[in-house]
Design goal:
Shape of chain A: globular
Largest sheet of chain A: 8 strands, mixed
Shape of chain B: globular
Structural class of chain B: alpha+beta
Strand content of chain B: 15-25%
Strand order of the largest sheet of chain B: 9-8-7-6-12-13
Largest sheet of chain B: 6 strands, antiparallel
Oligomer: heterodimer
CATH topology of one domain in chain A: Glucose Oxidase, domain 1
Strand content of chain A: 5-15%
Helix content of chain A: 40-55%
Order of helices and strands of chain B: HEHEHHHHEEHHEEEHEEEEHHEEH
Number of strands of chain A: 14
Number of helices of chain A: 20
CATH superfamily of one domain in chain A: Phosphohistidine domain
Radius of gyration of chain B: 21 Å
Structural class of chain A: alpha/beta
Distance between the termini of chain A: 42 Å
CATH architecture of one domain in chain A: 3-Layer(bba) Sandwich
Largest interface: A-B, 33 and 30 residues
Helix content of chain B: 25-40%
Radius of gyration of chain A: 24 Å
């Protein structure tokens, strides 16, 4: 494991002081004790937080959280992670905790620091994980079916026809489901992480590069690779039906009208609607109640199709996948040839175990059932409730409901007395959200005490908190060459495009090199047009690493400072095998 | 019996029950010697001798130094350095120095080597090999010591090694007194080793009881135990004694005695030896048989450190240097002796060589004892 080397460096502290608050939002003090947190709920920063490290999670939440999103964050990265770590019994960590700087999410971990607890957790970890790994397909099938049947239920509800009692019950059901979905998320994640990290550790022990392990596990189709394939197909259909003009040149809001005015337009739009019914139940970010799913606002899908149309040859998914599989198999063969005896036997068994319970695959696949979808029932029911409250004159627009905290909403729905005070706070809260949305890009990658090493191997592989990453964050000078984790091989030189939020993704031009904090599922379509990818965060298991390999482009992650060191327009050279990025003078 | 006699004990007088006084390492060696096993001769200085040795002023100075947890790693390192210097600089009281001198003279006489006797001076924590309290390897071991005055100096160094920052932090975490009350010292004849290493009576990676593993290098065992070289590696089937695997190590260095330095040091291994296995197949099988016998006597899997004396006829030159329970696989049942194994047992499927959960607990999450 890359657990870093002992270091005598002095800790560097990036003070949280500027972000210390008593309230999560103006006028909202949290009521504690209502939820069974293992290690504490989402909170604003306090002075004591200077003693630990806090990583900005722009990967999942780039633009900030409105008040109603904070309950969803509580369910996910706070409560879900804590309960998952507790039930699975992960020995070194009690899961994650969150702090907010303004409206922006930072993540920290809580180490298990007594020997007895480590031992007790290790014992139940073995009991819990072993049978799941032995029969992972059946187990994940069961969980996926549970999630799917909930979506079938919520999607079939006719919210507008409900009486007020039914609607309020639906809001509560949707919240309850959201919390359940996130427990499933972390239960599975911790189980699979152990399997993956064991393979990673074994690989390094027997003389292989640990970074190869996720490559050994690549090539399996996911819901998202199918989505991308469908988007390319729709681009090809637009050519056949001669409706490319609006897709290339119109803003998303007017695309539909312009397309349907063309002879083949209705056919194409119908096919697009069919696509959205299957693939459109996804939002752009995690736990963001204020972001619409594609089926509600298809702009991201229309943008993706439009950018694909700039490549007349299309993208041969079948050939790309065949090639990725052939390369994967060649890498496995090469690794096996270098081994013999018990090392080979252990390698084969670890590989088989990871092919059967494949974290690299699941890390993409699960998003359509959890991360990008679990909040949609809450959003729909809340918006319907918001619309009715607007009609009743309690709110001035349906989306105002996103600016109430869940406990506030629950209290006021039980006793309608508090509405005027709550409604009066909403404009200030909107302004607060907007103010912090603009401040997002300037927030430090890490707050508190930057450690020399992070003991939690999950934070290292998923968030990329390697010793190198931490040393780079401590450094102040900017080198002409950045180093990171070699995530996907190949060398590419080109013009950089620095993007700090997925909402800016439409600025990326074909053939550019994407430089960003990190990518998630929503960024996937852009990999079809970029030449290479460079990220601040990330390890071998991050989205950008996995998707770059599928698309056959070079990728370097975990550079810590790429978005600061590189400016849009700089000429850069990405070496995905060495894990280096050279920055040349700006082109313009 | 004088207090000095009670604190410096010849190996021939040590039995398993003496573990609380001399540490399990020395106690097991004494028991082995009494049972007719070939072990290096020697003597032990008890942990109580250390406890009663420091003058009161020094003791309270030490306690003041370690009373509070250090605010940061740098401060912990500075305090530990001061504590070690303090202990190392304190001469042994005359009664203890005399008792050690006398024991050393007796050892010279018993081995017949006189002034040419070389010894290993090893720390032997009274809790060191316990399943939980193991921070083995943190304490000093000094090889190739000759003169009695030098032996006394290295006994002090062993005791001082109880004050490394890691050892101090460990005691604090476990609610033990901050001073090193738990260190005995063993002084043993240094076997002039041609080859040396370790035998595991189970596969230390998978816990498979059907396989035994031998790891060895030319010269003293220090290069193997300290992990400074990748040793030669053999896997032997317990039931048949068949060698299942042999892997030549990257043996670029070995531990040898340097007469000028008067110490055992790590040196580059001559190219001719680097590619030559340091044991014959017969030696490998013999080492496994002896380790299995030891395991049967102890009732739990063992790792056994041994050395083969230079020039001695095989197997007369094989010495057991130390052994201890293999704690990585606590759930393992004692193996049946091979002769008693039921034929039906062979039909059972072999345990998988790789268990991701066990591997993750041990090597990824690094849970002690897993």
């Amino acid at each position: 494991m890359r657990l870093g080397v002992p270091s005598t460096e002095h800790p560097r502290i990036v003070p949280v002081d500027d972000y210390v608050r008593d309230e999560l939002y103006p006028g909202y003090k949290q009521a504690f004790g209502s939820q069974p947190f293992v290690a504490g709920p989402v909170r604003p920063f306090g002075k004591a937080d200077n003693s630990r490290y806090w990583l900005r999670d722009s990967l999942h939440f780039s633009e900030g959280m409105v008040p109603a999103s904070i309950a969803l964050l509580d369910d996910a990265q706070t409560w879900g992670a804590q309960l998952g770590a507790e039930i699975v019994g992960v020995p070194p960590t009690r899961g994650s905790v969150n702090r907010l700087a303004g409206t922006h999410v930072y993540i920290g971990t809580i180490d298990v620091d007594t020997e007895w607890q480590v031992q007790a957790r290790a014992a139940r970890f073995a009991e819990y994980v072993t049978p799941i790994l032995a029969d992972f397909d059946r187990y994940w099938g069961m969980r996926a079916a549970e999630l799917q049947s909930a979506y079938d239920h919520f999607d079939a509800l006719d919210l507008t026809a409900m009486d007020p009692g039914q609607l309020w019950a639906t809001v509560k059901d949707a919240y309850a489901f959201h919390r359940r979905a996130w427990f499933i998320h972390f239960e599975v994640m911790y189980v699979l992480t152990a399997n993956y990290l064991a393979f990673y550790g074994l690989a390094e022990e027997i003389g292989l590069e640990g970074s190869l392990v996720s490559a050994f596990l690549s090539g399996r189709q996911t819901f998202y690779s199918k989505t991308d394939e469908e988007l390319w197909r729709l681009a090809a259909r637009a050519r056949e039906l001669q409706v490319t003009g609006p897709l290339l040149h119109e803003p998303p809001a007017s695309v539909r009208t312009k397309i349907e005015a063309l002879p083949g337009g209705r056919t194409w739009w119908h096919e697009f609607g069919e696509f959205l019914r299957t693939y459109g139940q996804r939002t752009e970010e995690t736990c963001r109640i204020d972001t619409p799913p594609w089926i509600e606002d298809p702009s991201p899908a229309l943008y993706a199709i439009g950018s694909f149309l700039t490549r007349p040859a299309g993208f041969d998914f079948h050939a790309a996948r065949q090639q990725a599989i052939a390369e994967r198999d060649a890498q496995i063969d090469a690794a096996r040839r270098s081994l013999s005896g018990s090392d080979l036997e252990r390698f084969d068994q670890a590989l088989a175990s990871n092919q059967a319970a494949n974290f690299a695959w699941w890390n993409e696949e699960h998003n359509y059932l959890i991360d990008r979808r679990a909040a949609i029932p809450v959003r729909r029911a809340s918006l319907e409730l918001g619309a009715r409250l607007t009609d009743e004159g309690r709110l001035s627009q349906p989306e105002d409901i996103f600016f109430l905290f869940k406990p506030e909403l629950y209290a006021v729905m039980e006793d309608a007395a508090g509405w005027p005070e709550l409604a009066a706070m909403i404009p200030d809260r909107r302004a607060y959200f907007e103010e912090w949305r603009h401040r997002g890009p300037e927030l430090p990658t890490m707050l508190g005490t930057i450690p020399d090493t992070v003991p939690d191997p999950i934070m290292i592989e998923v968030f990329g908190l390697s010793g190198h990453f931490l040393r780079t964050l401590k450094g102040t000078g900017q080198a002409a060459e950045l180093r990171g984790f070699p995530a996907a091989k190949g060398v590419a030189e080109g013009v950089a495009r620095v993007i700090t939020s997925v909402t800016e993704i439409s600025r990326v031009q074909p053939g550019e090199i994407l430089v960003c904090g990190g990518t998630t599922t929503e960024w996937t379509p852009v990999f079809g047009i970029i030449k290479a990818c460079v990220c601040d965060t990330g390890g071998s298991l991050t989205h950008a690493a996995i998707v770059s390999r599928e698309y056959g482009i070079p990728c370097v992650v975990g550079t810590a400072t790429a978005t600061q060191a590189i400016k849009t327009g700089d000429r850069v050279r990405v070496d995905g095998r060495q894990g280096t990025v050279q920055v040349f003078a700006s082109e313009g | 019996m004088s207090p000095a006699d009670a604190h410096v004990i010849d190996l021939g007088d040590i039995r398993a029950a003496d573990a609380p006084r001399v540490g399990p390492k020395m106690a097991r060696l004494g028991q082995l010697a009494a049972g007719g096993w070939r072990v290096p001769d020697g003597y032990a200085v008890t942990a109580r001798a250390l406890d009663g040795w420091l003058p009161a002023g020094r003791r309270s100075e030490l306690e003041r130094l370690l009373a509070e947890p250090a605010p940061d790693p740098a401060a912990a390192a500075r305090r530990s350095e001061r504590a070690r210097a303090l202990v190392e600089a304190q001469p042994l009281p005359a009664w203890l120095a005399d008792a050690v001198g006398a024991a050393h003279d007796r050892l010279r006489a018993r081995t017949g080597l006189g002034a040419s006797l070389r010894v290993a001076v090893r720390s032997s924590a009274v809790t060191e090999d316990g399943a939980r309290a193991s921070f083995a390897g943190q304490f000093g071991t000094y090889l190739g010591i000759g003169e009695p005055a030098d032996v006394l100096h290295h006994i002090r160094k062993c005791w001082a090694s109880g004050y490394t920052a890691g050892a101090v932090a460990y005691r604090r975490r476990n609610g033990l007194p901050p001073h090193a009350h738990d260190l005995a010292v063993g002084v043993m004849q240094l076997v002039d080793a041609r080859s040396a290493g370790v035998t595991f009576t189970l596969d230390p990676v998978t816990g498979d009881r059907g396989r035994m593993v031998v790891e060895a290098n030319w010269g003293f065992g220090e290069s193997v135990v300290s992990g400074q070289v990748t040793p030669d590696h053999w896997v032997v089937e317990r039931a048949s004694g068949r060698i299942l695997e042999r892997r030549a190590g990257a043996k670029d260095a070995w531990s040898v005695f340097d007469p000028e330095a008067g110490r055992v040091v790590l040196r580059p291994l001559p190219a001719g030896l680097a590619r030559t296995p340091c044991l014959s197949d017969d030696e490998v099988r013999y080492l496994c048989r002896k380790a299995a016998e030891l395991e049967a006597a102890e009732g739990v899997p063992q790792d056994v450190e041994w050395a083969i004396a230079r020039g001695a006829p095989f197997p007369g030159g094989v010495f057991i240097v130390q052994h201890r329970p293999e704690t990585t696989w606590p759930a393992a049942e004692p193996a049946e002796p091979a002769a008693k194994a039921e034929p039906a047992a062979k039909a059972e499927p072999a345990a998988p060589a790789f268990d991701p959960v066990r591997y993750a607990l041990r090597n990824v999450f690094k849970v002690p004892g897993r």
